[in-house]
Amino acid sequence: MRKAAFIIIGVLVLLILLAAIVPQFIDVNRYRGKIQAELEQQLNRTVTLGDMHASLLPPSVKVNNAVIGEDKDFQTGRPFGSAQQLNISVQLLPLFHKDIAVNSIELVRPQVELVRNAQGVWNFSSLGNRTVKGATTPAQPESSASKKNFSLGELKLTDGTVAVTDLQKHQSRAVYDHIDLNVSDFAPNQQFNLKAAAHLPGAGKQAIFLQGKGGPLQQADMLNTPFAGTLKLDQVSLSAIEAFLNSQALKGIESVISGETSIHNSNSKLTAAGTLKLDNPKIRKVDVGYPITLDYDVTDDLTNDVIDIRKGNLKLGSTPVTVTGTMNAKPTPAQVDMKLTASNASIQEAARLASAFGFAFGEGMDVKGTVNANIQARGAADKPAMNGQLSARNLNISGKGIPQPVSVPSIDLALTPTTVRSNNFSATTGSTTVNMNFGLTNYTGPKSTIDAMLRAPKARIAIAATVSASP
């Protein structure tokens, strides 16, 4: 028994030694043409491979300076992909029949060019089409197995760089680096697993993680490819996301975002539900002064750039606000149809945020009190027309430009698309009390008109003013 065990161990050691030594005497470069042809047939792209080295445990080939050509319909002047090193794992049994079956591919420090043309077609949509376009290596006769659709056990990108050019949206080339990607069990007609990590430019972690299951792959329109998974943001700056999405909707807003989101994509509609926290938010270079948390459930129509907010529970510091509605991000400025509600909320945080966006009070003002709001906003995001009511209680206003604090016990505002009008209310500063009301007309236009009536003891003052604002 012991003798048999020694024999088995000896045979195993011999096989391991042979696996390590034999590849040193085999010039795998003579198979370069066949490997290139197989990859070209599977990828539907021209493929150029540099020096190659073989290994038997496991059966694999390492290739230096690998280049995957671009689809001939996309004239970018750059290859679709290149890698300093390409690790190709092949299946063992086909080797005994002098055939090569690729099992997995790993690209080390790859560079990938993603391009969408004016018709909305991505350059990677033709990957896996078995009709080879412009292959430099003569096509080999196809066996019945090679006629199958392209499939791959695993595709890995390690420390990659991805450049994105969107000609349909007239967006210039943007480059993102330090990207890791793992796709397993890939085939056009079945689901596949995906793991991705990216580090966006900027200070801090700037990390994005995506994990889930996608497919079957929709070659005609990649945005229709189903996907379900989880997206995690770890200290990602909003400016980096804006650059990544090439979106103007976030312009002028800066913050560091962390959170986790469940996402689901079907029929070009991306649904996301989760929680995000915005630390150190700044709007138009104004420091908001408190964190913002968001519990949400939204759908983004990727074809039309329309976002539907079914649930948007905001916390401005400790102040809760609810926002629902839609935003069309395709035009500039974005168009909104939103509803905002708040109940007995602290006005201090809301006023600070409104001031940062250029509404209500200016920088350096301190506003305290509680507010109730039920407002519908429609139109351009920077100057929406509003409908609804807003009421405030126990207001106290102080700060730059105000010699003494101003207190207002209560005020009610009625908002229409053309006018904001107040009730009769009183304001007290020092020993002086003034009864007043006002109306703001054409507030969405380039010129707004303010009509105000002020009454003090033994005096009556009527003031009408026209205020011009930039469109």
**Number of beta-strand segments:** 25
Question: Could you estimate the helical fraction of the residues in percent?
Answer: 10-25%
The major sheet is characterized as:
25 strands, mixed
Report the portion of residues in β strands.
over 45%
| Terminus-to-terminus distance | 94 Å
Low-confidence stretches: 2-25, 130-148, 459-471
Radius of gyration: 31 Å
- The computed structural class is mainly beta
Mean pLDDT: 78
Query: What is the N-to-C order of secondary-structure elements (H for helix, E for strand)?
Result: HHEEEEHEEEEEEHEEEEEEEHEEEEEEEE
Question: What topology emerges from the helices and strands here?
Answer:
Layout lengths: L1 H20 L10 H12 L3 E2 L3 E5 L2 E10 L12 E10 L1 H5 L5 E15 L35 E15 L4 E16 L5 E8 L7 E8 L12 E11 H8 L7 E14 L2 E15 L2 E2 L4 E10 L4 E11 L2 E10 L6 E12 H10 L8 E16 L4 E15 L6 E10 L3 E4 L2 E5 L2 E10 L5 E10 L2 E10 L3
Parallel strand pairs: 5-6
Antiparallel strand pairs: 1-3, 2-3, 3-4, 4-5, 6-7, 7-8, 8-9, 9-10, 10-11, 11-12, 12-13, 12-14, 14-15, 15-16, 16-17, 17-18, 18-19, 19-20, 20-21, 20-22, 21-23, 22-23, 23-24, 24-25
Describe the structure in your own words.
The chain is mainly beta and 471 residues long. Among the domains are: 20-169 and 179-186, no CATH class; 425-471. It is 12% helix and 54% strand. The protein has five helices and 25 strands. It has a 25-stranded mixed β-sheet that branches. The model is unreliable at 2-25, 130-148 and 459-471 (pLDDT under 50).
